Amino acid sequence: MAARAPAQTGRLLLGFRKWYYNLCGFNKLGLMYEDTIYENSDVKEALKRIPENVYNDRIFRIKRALDLSMKHQILPKDQWTKYEEDYAYLKPYVDEVIRERKEREEWMKK
């Protein structure tokens, strides 16, 4: 029975993540998680580096969400962003920008 405990814990944790994802509400507007992050200078630079089609998709989702929010509406349930469909499209670029900034700061110290 002890061998099953980690798998059960993993399923429980995944269930909690899905529950929390739906509780946040941004998916009901068609947004993905990374559409909602705060745009500091690192994120702004990363947004300049993502492919144009990914950037256009992001802008479309944000504009649609703003329109829905202004109208006090949400998307039909079949159009909500699902936990399984949400992926980190921006994280690799943000990590690269942060790594470059830290490298530049180290270089300026010398």
Automatic annotation (TrEMBL):
The keyword Transport applies. One of its GO terms (cellular component) is respiratory chain complex III. It is found in: Mitochondrion inner membrane. Keywords: Electron transport, Membrane, Mitochondrion, Mitochondrion inner membrane, Respiratory chain, Transport. It is a peripheral membrane protein. Signal peptide: none annotated. The lineage of its organism: Eukaryota, Metazoa, Chordata, Craniata, Vertebrata. Component of the ubiquinol-cytochrome c oxidoreductase (cytochrome b-c1 complex, complex III, CIII), a multisubunit enzyme composed of 11 subunits. The complex is composed of 3 respiratory subunits cytochrome b, cytochrome c1 and Rieske protein UQCRFS1, 2 core protein subunits UQCRC1/QCR1 and UQCRC2/QCR2, and 6 low-molecular weight protein subunits UQCRH/QCR6, UQCRB/QCR7, UQCRQ/QCR8, UQCR10/QCR9, UQCR11/QCR10 and subunit 9, the cleavage product of Rieske protein UQCRFS1. Component of the ubiquinol-cytochrome c oxidoreductase (cytochrome b-c1 complex, complex III, CIII), a multisubunit enzyme composed of 3 respiratory subunits cytochrome b, cytochrome c1 and Rieske protein, 2 core protein subunits, and additional low-molecular weight protein subunits. The complex exists as an obligatory dimer and forms supercomplexes (SCs) in the inner mitochondrial membrane with cytochrome c oxidase (complex IV, CIV). This is Cytochrome b-c1 complex subunit 7. GO terms for biological process: mitochondrial electron transport, ubiquinol to cytochrome c. Component of the ubiquinol-cytochrome c oxidoreductase, a multisubunit transmembrane complex that is part of the mitochondrial electron transport chain which drives oxidative phosphorylation. Its main location: mitochondrion. Belongs to the UQCRB/QCR7 family.
